Amino acid sequence: NDDGSRFVPVYEQISQVGIDLQLTRDAWLWKFEALRREAESGDFNAAVGGLEYTFYGVADRAADLGVLIEYLYDDRSVAAPPTPFDDDVFIGARLALNDSSDTSVLAGAVIDTETHERFLNIEAERRFGDNLTLDLRLRAFSNAAPRSLLDGFAQDDYLQLSLSWYY
Questions:
Q1: Residue 129 CB partners (closer than 8 Å, separation 6+)
Q2: What span, in angstroms and rounded, lies between the C-alpha atoms of 141 and 145?
Q3: Does residue 160 form part of some domain?
Q4: What is the rounded CA–CA span in Å between residue 25 and residue 14?
Q5: 6 occurs within a structural domain
Q6: Residue 84: how many other CB atoms lie within 10 Å
Q7: How far apart are CA 62 and CA 95, in angstroms?
Q8: Residue 1: per-residue pLDDT
Q9: C-alpha distances in Å from residue 23, one per residue of 28, 108, 161
Q10: Position 30 in a domain
Q11: What are the E-state strand segments in the chain?
């Protein structure tokens, strides 16, 4: 920059420990992930915990419908680089048609419990024969508060449609 300012990378030593747990019981899937990081710049904890319940044979078909809910937590200080997922809830659903085309859809939203900002996500895929797949990805931001972390992404919604050939 003309004023002599510049970015200088900092690679500090950290100590980190994490845990991933999963329990499956009948139609229930319980998940928990957590970490503890200690560094000179500050210590923090982060965790995600949630569950999924799957309804099998939906509408008298082979399809399965999973309902998901998760809580996202991060206690970094305000002096740390910001994170958008510090006190949020994810609500979503997964539909697997269990057909020969392996058709599936995962849709959900991460909702900030304080600002009500939302990050929407949809992923869908279907196979055609042995070599061709169609994938759909939608990412959208909604209700971003002015000057919030997500406000910088408010105009970055996107839709991606991919047709892939495997040989």
A1: none
A2: 11
A3: yes
A4: 36
A5: no
A6: 19
A7: 11
A8: 57
A9: 8, 22, 34
A10: no
A11: 14-25, 28-39, 44-55, 64-74, 87-96, 104-112, 118-128, 132-142, 158-165
Tokens found for residue 51? 């569950």
d(CA 16, CA 61): 46
Structure tokens at 126: 């279907």
The domain of 82 spans: 50-165
Phi, psi of 90 (to 5 degrees): -105, 130
CA neighbor of 112 nearest in space, from 85, 147, 73, 93: 85
- Write the CB contacts of 20 (distance below 8 Å, at least 6 apart in sequence): 31, 32, 33
Structure token pair of residue 33: 């992930």
Q: According to the model, what pLDDT value does residue 5 have?
A: 83
Over the Cα atoms of the chain, what is R_g? 20
pLDDT at 60: 83
Residue 15 lies in a domain: no
Residues of the chain with pLDDT under 50: none
Q: Which residues pair with 44 in a beta bridge?
A: 37
157, amino acid identity: D
* Tally of domains in the chain: 1
* Collapsed DSSP state (helix, strand, coil) of residue 60: helix
What amino acid is encoded at 68 in this protein? Answer: L
The β-bridge relationship of strands 118-128 and 64-74 is: unpaired
Length of the chain: 167
